[in-house]
Amino acid sequence: MQFSAPYKLTGSSNLAFHFHPDHLADLRLSGLNDETIRAAGVYSIAPSLISHFFSARKGIPSEIESALCFPYQGYTFARIKLFPALGKMKYAEPPKTGARLYVPFSVSDGCVHICEGEKKTLAAYQTGLNAVGIGGVWNWLQNREPIADLDLIQWDGRDVMVIPDSDVFQRFDLIRGIYALGRELRGLGANVYIAQIPQPTSGKVGLDDFLVAGGNVSGLEIFSLGHRIFKGAAWWHGQWKFRKAILAA
């Protein structure tokens, strides 16, 4: 299946004619403008196509009313945002497909910014960053191995800034995932840094929230992988790699 928009978004200057109102409102909350939305090929998916993202045996959960589609490079894969969310499940991808790297636009020379989620990747791109995305902190692994999409980018000698959601620094399980990604990219020759988004309250802050509030990525505090903030994750990573080696033997 080709996950390209069933209509061209150039037919009207008003995206309200092309999007479910809830979807367009959600994109606007992330600060995304018409130009970015059109360029990324985002669209409200036809209800009949939502079934492609759930197994035929289980069918579409009755709670789902609509879905917003984010096609990936090549338009042969996509993830959809569910409206409403199914508990903690906000996004879905076709059954029996794995994690993918979201590369909505060509990656140019210079620092690559890795964002957590499609909307945040688009928000970063809109501010002029060289941005790609992962669906979540562990969505760069498939069957315990790095996804093939990592090969889409030449990492050797390149600066990389990973910008996860603010709650990563509040949870051991999440900071481990981001640290492990950083180590993987460092092993491919990249100079890796992790940026911390401020979290003034208990609520999680994503990169899009931060940018909409007037934040600037250049003002974020950044840490190298050798910083003491990753001391626990570094110890865990050594044990994790050892267990992987044992399982592979």
Topology at a glance:
Layout: H1 21-29, H2 34-40, E1 43-44, E2 66-71, E3 78-86, E4 89-92, E5 112-116, H3 118-126, E6 131-134, E7 141-142, E8 145-146, E9 159-163, H4 172-187, E10 191-196, H5 207-212, E11 221-224, H6 231-248
Parallel strand pairs: 5-6, 5-9, 9-10
Antiparallel strand pairs: 1-2, 2-3, 3-4, 7-8, 10-11
Helix pairs in contact: 4-6
Please tell me about this protein's structure.
With 249 residues, the protein is an alpha/beta fold. 26% of the residues lie in helices and 20% in strands. It folds into two domains: 15-92, no CATH class; 112-248, Dna Topoisomerase Vi A Subunit, Chain: A, domain 2 (3-Layer(aba) Sandwich). It contains six helices and eleven strands. α4 packs across α6 (231-248). The longest helix has 18 residues, at 231-248. The radius of gyration is 18 Å and the shape is globular.
Just name the CATH architecture of the largest domain. Answer: 3-Layer(aba) Sandwich
**Residues in helix, %:** 25-40%
Q: Over all CA atoms, what is the radius of gyration? A: 18 Å
The structural class is alpha/beta
Shape: globular
Give the domain tally: 2
Order of helices and strands: HHEEEEEHEEEEHEHEH
Named CATH topology of the largest domain: Dna Topoisomerase Vi A Subunit, Chain: A, domain 2
Q: Could you name the key traits of this structure?
A:
26% helix; 249 residues; 6 helices; alpha/beta; Dna Topoisomerase Vi A Subunit, Chain: A, domain 2; five-stranded mixed sheet
